[in-house]
Design brief:
It is built from no helices and eleven strands. By secondary structure, the chain is mostly beta strands. The mean pLDDT is 95.
Length: 123
């Protein structure tokens, strides 16, 4: 069964850091571009970052550029999102997703989704 599982979400103070992980089972993550998305209460799901199959190409939403870093380890079948200098507006459920084709930030391009992990930024 194809599955993506996110982990690493937590409650953190503004200015703090978290590292989210996305692990795949049932398929080879290296065959897919991987994206991170987030959805805050009452808002639409939005693209945060993505990384190409090889890892050579990445993309970030303007709101997280310079603060978030996406990386992948195809040997371990995992993708990570390092989040620094977190702000209250980063509070959301974060999802990872796999796309057969390219690293893009549109949700419609992704074929498989995880269940999400909660990130809360609050003092």
């Amino acid at each position: 069964q194809l599955q993506l599982v996110e982990s690493g979400g937590d409650l953190v103070q503004p200015g703090g850091s978290l590292r989210l992980s996305c692990a795949a089972s049932g398929f080879t993550l290296g065959n897919y571009a991987i994206g991170w998305f987030r959805q805050a209460p009452g808002k639409e799901r939005e693209g945060v970052s993505c990384i190409s199959k090889s890892g050579r190409s990445t993309n970030y939403a303007d709101s997280v550029k310079g603060r978030f870093t996406i990386s992948r380890d195809n040997a371990r079948n995992t993708v990570s999102l390092q989040m620094n200098n977190l702000k209250p507006e980063d509070t959301a459920v974060y999802y990872c997703a796999a796309a057969i084709f390219a690293c893009v930030l549109g949700t419609k391009d992704y074929n498989y989704w995880g269940q999400g992990t909660q990130v809360t930024v609050s003092s």
